[in-house]
Amino acid sequence: MTLSSPWRGDFPGILALEKEGQTYLDSAATSQKPQALTAALTDYYARGTANVHRAQHLPAERATRAFEASRAKVAHWLNADSPGQIIFTRGCTEAINLLAYALEEQFHPGDQLVIGAAEHHANLLPWQQLALRRGLELVVLPLDADGAIDLTEAARLIGPQCRLLAIGQLSNVLGRWQPLAELLALARARGALTVVDGAQGAVHARPDVQALDCDFYAFSAHKLYGPEGVGVLYGRAEALQRLEHWQFGGEMVQVADYRSATFRPPPLGFEAGTPAIGAVIALGSTLDYLLGLDAEAVARHEAALHARLLEGLRQRDGLRVLGAPEVALASFVVEGVHNADLAQLLGEQGIAVRAGHHCAMPLYASLGLGGAVRVSLGLYNDGADLERFFAALDRALELLR
Ligand SMILES: Cc1ncc(COP(=O)(O)O)c(C=O)c1O
Asked: pLDDT tens digit string along 101-117?
């Protein structure tokens, strides 16, 4: 049965790559972009640029209006109460670093920061380094065989000293949703702050921060079919009040003299310097595009891709899928074959997948592996992409074994 994507034509990049003989299966690293994004970027740059929040002239007013409209669209998309809860950063990594610095004063020696065993380095290293700076303990919640955090262990480990829980919603290696509702409830019962790394989760299901009831939610636009250079940090109103300013410079200040300064509240107080104006505006257009899609049809398509991908992988002898992926993303290893060699041979056949440790070295170490090959699909992928992948995989394995 053919499995076509009705949205493929909306993504000029995927069509251009196809013409070049490339099959793009690396969307968890970064996605291809819809025409709506490229049109918004071209329009912004072609009409005349201006800096935001600073000047009275027409171009500045127009840029500021479009920039703030994007903030409102992001708030709507996340189901936040208000646009004032949305801080634009340069990416998910920067959003989590912002928290690790801006919350530093909240923690004292002996306090515990809790993370999951499957974290991307972006949601591990900022907390690890904060723990080292402040004499805190970093507690790591173990996974079950499928790749989800073991809730019995979590209930034991999220103890009275827990001051913060920071969890990746969906692992970029294992493709598994974490039991967020239960984990966040355990942390809230301890009075701890809760941070959700939504870099992968935001792509596969529209987040609802009120339903999640988290203090902070972070993601990167570029994985969500949006532009590079823009991240989003949502904060619950009371949680935002606990942030200390962390980067200093233009636009985040109220009054400054040579010896002291006062700073703006969130969000602007946390957006020092000129932001990625065109990209933020283009993110707004990307969200308009995504909101215009039939979400159920997208989910059905992704589920069909997911099923076909896993079925094909499981048919190959000696191939092992890591964990039990729940979205169209799977990492695998093949007995007696190095992941880099396999990715190289796939690349030579025009198949773009990602091999290595996927910025999750401790997870791979705990699995006793040095790396894996990851296939990750977007809403523009189709059955023909998978057929090309499996044909190339069989050829590569024939050569390598
Ligand atoms: C789960 C997860 N968190 C955080 C990040 C960091 O995102 P970025 O590099 O866009 O800041 C990634 C990127 O791969 C990710 O997969």
From this structure: 999 999 999 999 999 99
